[in-house]
Specification:
Layout: E1 2-6, H1 10-21, E2 25-30, E3 41-44, H2 46-54, H3 58-64, E4 70-75, E5 81-85, H4 87-95, E6 100-103, H5 104-113, E7 120-122, E8 126-132, E9 135-140, E10 145-148, E11 150-153, H6 160-164, E12 172-184, E13 191-197, E14 200-206, E15 210-218, H7 233-239, H8 245-252, E16 258-265, E17 277-279, H9 294-308, H10 314-342, H11 349-359, H12 366-373
Bound molecules: flavin-adenine dinucleotide.
Flavin-adenine dinucleotide (FAD) binds at residues 6-12, 29-32, 42-43, 125-126, 154-156, 160, 178, 214, 261, 281-282, 289, 292-296, 298.
């Protein structure tokens, strides 16, 4: 059985590995001439690392991944702890897999090494496709036509495959943008820290040689979605004026490039699959990064899809994939959107009750979000 995987991001590369493990040929067709994840960080919860371990990638990943001690949510002005997940101590024991933070290019390198050269087409942008009951065909900008039993759209938030199959829902601008910067790690950062404050939040964690900083702030009229649009370190610092001395100290260390990325999502889609086509990752469930789950959900999709496709009855397998994955991914999409409000409450009564709920373990605590890290329903 042959699959064409459109898009060689995290989702597409994992899907191709997973399909090959189930006996498929899976050709990845990627528009970029080389793999291009930017130098930034990514957190992967046990729902994702469990899938990667089953694909035999755990040894390679463990060489480049960092296991933080804790994920800590804290207040913006005095670092007071609101809730904390005991990652190192509890994730493996409770969910059967680790919680990692990674430098994105390291993750992509591990995934790219797992692709056979004869099942990889780089610099080949897919411009159109047709699909029927017997198979599907994609065409590329340079005039190639690739036929397959299954076309998998892993081509991100502006998916061409989605437009050609289930149609489009308009992208929804969150009003926020993410500033991203890397600073050299000093070896002392053992936590993922998320400071919640009025109108904005800040995330900091180690990815090994660097400390990854993501500052989510109001974007005003900034609408550019690009990993490489430049930002300004002083602007970034100004957004956090008056925050805790720890935050100021971290931002003072920024003297390399700063990038800005406008944050969009889409409302959950009612369907992801046709008879011989399926969507995966940001192509079907783009979400705000306020649960650090976009890539993790793409990886979960890949694991479940390949498991469903083992018996080679493609339309039935795709239906089952959608039934298993769509409800969970949609719930996380909605919750990530809602966190745009919940994370950014101004100090006052609502913020006070949010913080109390966090301290009591009812909101954002590990018990409250553990369903995210559990296995997607078993494939029967
Ligand atoms: C600030 C920020 C922080 C984040 N942090 C986290 C985190 O900590 N944890 C987490 O799990 N997620 C995180 N995410 C989300 C995560 O980055 C995405 O959800 C994930 O990268 C999506 O992967 P994907 O493979 O589905 O799509 P993409 O990464 O968008 O990959 C799509 C690929 O398809 C290619 N492509 C597009 N169109 C075509 C075409 N027509 N033909 C051929 N190729 C094409 C593109 O070049 C690209 O390589 C974060 C996102 C942001 C913005």
């Amino acid at each position: 059985m042959r699959a064409v995987v459109v898009g060689g991001g995290i989702g597409g590369l994992v899907a191709a590995v997973a399909l090959r493990r189930r006996g498929w040929t899976a050709t990845v067709v990627e528009s970029a001439a080389k793999f291009g994840e930017v130098g930034a960080g990514v957190q992967l919860g046990p729902n994702a690392t469990r899938v990667l371990a089953r694909l035999g990638l755990d040894e390679e990943l463990a060489k480049v991944a960092v296991t933080p001690e804790v994920v800590r949510f804290c207040r913006w002005d005095d670092d007071a702890v609101l809730t904390e997940w005991p990652v190192k101590r509890r994730m493996r024991e409770r969910f059967g897999a680790p919680y990692y933070t990674l430098y994105r290019p390291d993750l992509i390198e591990v995934l790219a090494r797992a692709q056979p050269a004869d099942q990889l087409l780089l610099g080949a942008r897919v411009t159109g496709m047709t699909a029927g009951a017997d198979g599907a065909t994609v065409s590329t900008v340079d005039g190639r036509r690739l036929e397959a039993d299954l076309v998998l759209g892993c081509d991100g938030i502006h998916s061409t495959v989605r437009s050609a199959t289930v149609g489009d829902v308009p992208a929804r601008f969150s009003g926020m943008c993410a500033y991203r910067a890397l600073v050299p790690a000093d070896g002392t950062e053992t936590k993922v820290r998320i400071w919640l404050g009025p109108g904005r939040h800040l995330v900091a964690y180690s990815v090994g040689r660097y400390l990854n900083l993501v500052g989510v702030v109001p974007a005003a009229d900034w609408r550019t979605e690009s990993w490489i649009a430049p930002g300004d370190a002083d602007d970034l610092r100004r957004h956090y004026a008056g925050w805790s001395a720890t935050v100021a100290g971290l931002l003072d260390r920024v003297d390399g490039p700063v990038y800005r990325w406008a944050l969009y999502d889409r409302e959950p889609l009612p369907e992801w699959v046709g008879q011989t086509t399926a969507l995966l990752g940001d192509a079907c469930h783009p979400m705000l990064p306020f649960l650090a789950q976009g890539a993790a959900q793409a990886i979960e999709d890949a694991g479940v899809l390949a498991e469903c496709l083992e018996d080679h009855d493609v339309p039935a397998a795709l239906e089952r994939y959608q039934r298993l994955r769509l409800p969970k991914a949609s719930r996380i999409q909605r919750m990530s959107w809602d966190n745009n409000t919940a994370y950014h409450l101004p100090d006052g009564p609502e913020q006070h009750s949010r913080d109390e709920a966090m301290r009591r373990g009812e909101a954002f605590a590990l018990d409250a979000v553990s369903w995210i890290f559990e296995e997607t329903g078993s494939v029967g």
